[in-house]
Amino acid sequence: MSRDHDHETVTGGATSPLAARVRAMEALLIEKGVVTEAEIQDNVAYMDSRSPANGARLVARAWTDDGFKTRLLADGRAAAIEFGIDAVASPDLVVVENTPHVHNLIVCTLCSCYPRNVLGRPPDWYKSFEYRSRAVREPRAVMREFGFEPPEVTRVAVHDSTADVRYMVLPMRPPGTEEMD
Amino acid sequence: MARFAPGDPVRVRPGAKPGHVRTPDYLKGKPGRVEVVLGAYPNPEDLAYGLSGEPGRVLYKVGFRQDTLWPDYEGPSDERLYADVYEHWLEPGGEI
Question: Residue A112: CB partners within 8 Å, gap ≥ 6?
Answer without folding.
Answer: A122, A126, A127
